Amino acid sequence: MRAQGGFTLIEIMVVLLIIAGLAYIVGTNVIGQLDKSKVENTKIQITQLESGLKLFKIDNGFYPDTQQGLDALIVMPTTGREPRRYDSNGYLEGDQVPLDQWGSEFIYIGPDQSGGTTYEIISPGQDGVPQTEDDISSRNIR
Questions:
Q1: Whole-prediction pTM
Q2: Would you state the pLDDT for residue 141?
Q3: Do the Cβ atoms of 122 and 107 come closer than 8 Å?
């Protein structure tokens, strides 16, 4: 009689279980790194928006108010305090304010509502809901 070669059902199941375990570990690590990179990229975006706001202030002597918002970095504001030396090229590259890494708009609170001479830029974070634990604020990334 000839012996048959091959794997038993139990051997195949053990191999599949090992592969599934490895896939879970690798997948979890990749997703964790992706989440971290989105947070870091959003912080970089906020820093770039801050650079635009600082240039706006250098030219015009004030930061945009809340109503003017971050759009004041793209298009000269027509409401509120009027910029006198607005750069015709704007203060950001492109023709629109970028969205955060989760596709949400940044929230801008100007000096008129922040209680001072400065501003706050907020990403509502992964959940897209403002005023939750995952928010990223310009006040907390320094």
A1: 0.77
A2: 85
A3: yes
| Residue 51, domain CATH | 3.30.700.10
**Tokens 């279980």 — which residue?**
17
Give the model's pLDDT for residue 3: 58
Q: Per-residue pLDDT averaged across 117-128, rounded? A: 94
The rounded distance, in Å, linking the Cα atoms of 30 and 2 is 48
Cα–Cα distance for residue pair 22/26, rounded to 1 Å:
6
DSSP SS3 for 35: helix
Domain range for 105: 9-140
108 vs 5: CA distance, rounded Å:
69
Place of tokens 């964790």: 32
Q: Residue 26: pLDDT above 80? A: no
Give the C-alpha separation, 127 to 105, whole Å: 12
